[in-house]
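Checked the freezer inventory, then went back to the computational side. Two predictions to log before the end of the day. The first one is the construct we discussed on Monday; recording sequence and C-alpha cells without edits.
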Amino acid sequence: MAEFPEEDDSTVSQSQRRTKKLTVAGRAMYEENVNNRYASLSKIKRKMDSEIEYYLQSKNKEKISVLVKENLVTLSKKYKQEAQEFIDYPRRTGTEESEKERLSFELILSTLEMRMEKTVEELNNVISTSDDLLPSDAYSESTTTKSSKSSTSKRSSKKSHSSNSTIILRQRAKAEALKAKLEFTEKEIQLKRQKSKLVEEEQKRRAEVTRKSVDLETDLELLCAQKEKAIVDAELQAMVEFDVIDSQLDTDLDTIDSTEKTRKYIDDVFKYNNETTTDCEPRNQETVIPTTTTEISQGEMFPQQPKTSKKKMSPQERQRWDLP
C-alpha cells in the first residue's frame, strides 16, 4: 500500500498543517490511501454485521451468544486499531480536506462503538440468564463451513463491492458530519438567542437604573432649592421680628427718657430754690420758677437753658411748695 510522505508533528504546527495543499500527484496518492483504508475497515465492519445478523436470525440465540460475543469483541478490537491508523493519516496529511475526512470518520467510529457496546451488553444479558450454551469449537466449525460455501460466490464481485462500499461509507461519513454540524449549528443559534435576550434584559435594567438615578438627582436638586428658600424665609422672618422688637424698645426708651428728664428737672428746680432761699427773709423771698421749652429734633429731646422770673409768693403758695 502506497503511503503519502509524512512530516514530523514536532516540526510542523497545527495551523501550518491545515493550510497545506497537495499537488495533483500527492492528491491522487492521498485518495488511493484513503480508499484502501476505507476498504479494509469496510471488510471488518461487514464481518461484524454478519455476526450480528447471524445472531439475530438464529433460533437458538442462547446457545450461540457466547461465541458471537467473542467474535464481535475480536473484530471490534481489530476495527478500532485500523480506525486509529486511519485517523492519524489525515491528521498527518494536514490539508483542509483531510481534516474534514478525519472528523467525518470519527463520527462514524463513535456511532459504531456505541452500537457494538449495546450489542455486547445485550449478549451479556442473554449469557447471564442462559444455561444452554454452544461450545466455541462447534460454532467455529459451523461458521467455517458457512464461510467456505459463500467465499467462492463472493470472490468474483469482491472488488466491485469493495469499491462501492468505500464510496457509500465516505458519503455516509459526510452525511453524518453534516448532520452533526447542523445539530451544533442549531444549538449555537439557541445559545446566541439566549445571549441576545440576556443582553436586552441587561440594557433594560441599566436604562431603568439610569432613569431612577436621574429622578433622584432631580429630586435632590429640588430639595436643595427648597432648603435655600426655607433658610431665606427664616432669616427674613427673624429680621422682621427683630425690627418690630427694636422699634418697640426704642419707643419704650423714649418714653422712659422723657419722664426721667421731667422728674430730674423738677428736682433741680426745688434744689435751686432751696439754695437761694434764706430764713431771714421769709415774706419777701422771691421764688424762682423756671420754665423750660422742649424741642423735638429727629426723635430726640433737647432741653434749653431754663429762664427765671422773680415773683412774690403768698403763704399758701409757699406752704404748697413746702418752703419756709
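The second is the one RB wanted added to the comparison set:
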Amino acid sequence: GAAGKARELKRIPLTLKIYLVGLNTCMHACGAIATLVPVVQVGKWTYWVLGIAIFFMLGGQMYSKEAVLVRTAVKNGTDTDYVLLARFVMVSWTLYPIVWAISDGSRTVDSDIREGLYAFVEALNKLGFLGLFLAITSPPNTPRWLQWTSSVTAAIFGRRRRIEEKSLQLQSTHGSQILEEFETGGGSSRMLAAERRASALPTDVR
C-alpha cells in the first residue's frame, strides 16, 4: 500500500518526458541553425528568438508551481532541492544565448574570445550542477574538500541560508548533540536522519 503509493507519486507521465525532450531538442536545433545562417540574414536572429521562446517554455515546465514536475516534487517531499536545481539550470542556461548574441549573432567579439566564453559557460554548467547535486545528496563522512566545494556552489543559490535556519531550529528544539550531527553531515539525507534521531530521544534530553 504505502510503497505502491510512493512509487505512484514519483511517476512522471511518458508524454511529458517526450514533450520536454522534444522542446530541448528544438531549442538546441534553433541555436545550431542560427549559428550556421550567414550574419546578413534576418533569419539568424529569428531562430535565436525562437530558441529563447522555447527556453521559456521549458522554464515554465521546470519552475512553475502548477507544472507536473514541481507538483510531483512537492508530493515526494523533494521540492526544496528540486527548485534549487531548477533555479541553477535556469540561471546558467541563460548565459548561452547571451554569449551567442555577442559572438555568433553580432560578431562583437572575435572567435578566440567566443571559444573562451563558451568554455567558461560549459565549465560553470557542468561543474556547478555537479557541486550543487553533491551538496544536496552528500552522505555522512564526505571529504572536507568536497563539502567545502559543494557548499560554495550551493551558497550562491540560496542553500546556505536554509541550512543555517535549519541548524538553529534543530539547536533550539533538540540541543547541541543533534546540531553537531546536522552540521557535520552536509546533505538533506543527513538532515532527515538527524531529525529522526532527535525524535527518538527521551523527553528530558530534548
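For RB: The CA atoms of residues 92 and 125 lie 6 Å apart. The chain has a mean pLDDT of 73. Let me know if you want it refolded.
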